[in-house]
Amino acid sequence: MAELDKECLFCKIIQGTVPSYTVFENDDVKAFLDLSQVNPGHTLMVPKKHIINLLDYTPEDARRYLQYLPAIANAIKEFDTNITGMNITTNNGASANQVVMHSHVHFIPRFEGDGLKLATRNNAEKYTSADYEKIATKIKEQF
């Protein structure tokens, strides 16, 4: 298999040298259960190309690999009628809690009253309209 890293855990899973509980696989991606099972059905989808994280995707990589997100999410949702929502997340870089340095998307099924809290914070009181304009302008300039 081309474009894989012999030291990467997810590349080993793609190659089959490390076992996984696969739920979907084709020539582009592999989706398998996350062993942590934050909630039942917690699944990871990885591209079958060693890409560190989403920030390293080319437009072609995005078209090729991310097209499977809805199908995988819907298959997970359909496996249990008690699923009422889903967090679909990706951690990009160590400071964002990325542990395995191979791009992967988490599908975390949600259930009413599951008690899972994904931490965010609201810092709106720290920003003025001018601050928002400055940040937005700087980001726009990067395109």
Automatic annotation (TrEMBL):
A motif (Histidine triad motif) lies at residues 102-106. Keywords: Hydrolase. GO terms for molecular function: hydrolase activity. SUPFAM superfamilies: HIT-like (SSF54197). PROSITE patterns: HIT_1, HIT_2. Residues 9-117 form the HIT domain. Signal peptide: none annotated. The keyword Manganese does not apply. It holds the Pfam family HIT. This is Diadenosine tetraphosphate hydrolase.
